[in-house]
Amino acid sequence: MGRISVDKERLKSPKKREDFAHLLYPVFMEQGIKNISTNDICNILSKSKATVYKHFDSKKDIVTYILNEKLEAMQKFPGLLFSKNEYKARYQNAVKYVSDILEDISPLFLSDLKEIYPDLWENIENFKQSAISILKIFYNEGIENGAVIDIDPEYLILQDELFFDTLINPYLMKSRKLDIKKAFDAYFEIRFNGIMKR
Hints:
The chain has 198 residues and is mostly helical.
């Protein structure tokens, strides 16, 4: 009688996957995806290829895990934006939350992600579109309640969309040596307070 094969999915320990991904995350952010080989991954984790492959199918599987963690964390954004606080506090809390999540994402990582895994990049594009739709509802409600200046929300959304497109344009951010979190914070500081001193 032959050996019974063990379903590979059963070997994927959620705790090990989380631990491995958290160890690899800063390395991917600093060095990008292209510059990290499977051997590098094994060396960083001090594990054999066999052990790593028990928990992740491939380097792409690791990157997918890392990206999904960030995108899942971003799912709190709508809840903060539509909490029971007053409008400005909602906006500030939601923006601060997203800013903290973006803190350590590097343009190099995004650049490699877009080039190597365009199917994963689509998830970022989808999140951007979702965020823009949510902001449009927020602006409309704010205008109706007198909390947001009475301006066509399409202009506000256009500004946000152009900014988000810049923020997730890894080539532009990298070529101008711009920090994603600082750019995000500066944009929304201008949103809150304008550029003129009072």
